[in-house]
Write a structure and sequence with these properties.
Length: 283
């Protein structure tokens, strides 16, 4: 009987000790939704969960947009959660939230510590932003200007909207130096003129290695080097008196396709364009 009594007392003491330990535990944040630096697609309430039941203290919560403008919010404390709800739907942008110390407190009257967190409201994920930037930069390299819109499936964002979206993550569209198409073409053609015609090579790399090649090799060489300089180019194929699949190169200038000036740089007629239209092979 005495053994049973001792066991019961030990159990009661253990329960009381555990409860006291739980009660005296430091008030900490268990989770924040949205998480710090998260990107969310729509406006939502912010929920801050603590490791203990809390009640309102001296509430001091500040939500600001990246521009520094404060956002009016309502707060509610229930159970272990502090819920912060914007009075108006949050628009696209980055937001910072500050929950000052003492905003909530536990059953012992111990207040929370200062919490700072941030999140972004955006219709695009970070991966989508980077993909759009890559496409916009490629367009700029080929056209010397930014595109009017950036598309994702059937959804289109004006370039102004897109820049606003990517700026929330500190991203920008890098505008590569636009080289004069005429100057770039001249430079590439001068370097190409040292190669002679032969049937020994059919690709630009083999022609560079051997020192000569056919119209396919020259076209590959010109297209590769013009494109590397940011000049929008293409290879076209068509029949001639000498071949059923002759190839030549054109570059885009002043809103139209222009044949590269073969006759200015080559004496052989095998590197030439006999017409300005054909099947587009590359570009």
């Amino acid at each position: 009987m005495s053994v049973l009594l001792l066991f019961s007392l030990a159990l009661i003491l253990n329960v009381n000790t555990s409860a006291a330990a739980s009660s005296n535990a430091t008030l900490k944040v268990s989770s924040v939704d949205p998480a710090n630096n998260a990107i969310i697609h729509d406006s939502q309430s912010i929920k801050v969960k603590y490791n203990k039941t809390v009640k309102s203290g001296k509430v001091w919560v500040v939500l600001k947009k990246g521009t520094g403008k404060s956002v009016t919010v309502n707060t509610e404390v229930k159970g272990n959660t502090l819920t912060i709800t914007p009075k108006q739907a949050l628009g696209i942008g980055k937001y910072s939230l500050t929950i000052h110390s003492g905003t909530v407190k536990d059953e012992n009257g111990i207040g929370n510590k200062l919490l700072k967190t941030s999140f972004t409201v955006s219709p695009l994920t970070l991966a989508q932003m980077k993909d759009g930037i890559k496409r916009a930069e490629k367009y700029y390299a080929n056209n010397g200007r930014l595109p009017n819109t950036v598309s994702y499936g059937s959804t289109k964002y004006s370039i102004t909207q897109f820049n606003q979206i990517i700026s929330t993550q500190g991203l920008t569209i890098k505008k590569p130096k636009v080289v004069s198409a005429a100057a770039a073409v001249s430079d590439v053609m001068k370097k190409a003129s040292k190669y002679s015609y032969s049937s020994a090579a059919h690709t630009g790399k083999d022609m560079e290695r051997i020192g000569s090649g056919d119209c396919w090799a020259m076209s590959d060489y010109l297209y590769t080097h013009l494109t590397a300089k940011g000049v929008k180019s293409r290879i076209i194929q068509y029949g001639t008196a000498y071949s059923s699949n002759h190839r030549s190169v054109q570059y885009y200038s002043n809103n139209r396709w222009v044949d590269v000036p073969y006759r200015t740089y080559f004496t052989t007629s095998m590197f030439n364009n006999t017409q300005s239209y054909g099947t587009v092979i590359r570009g």
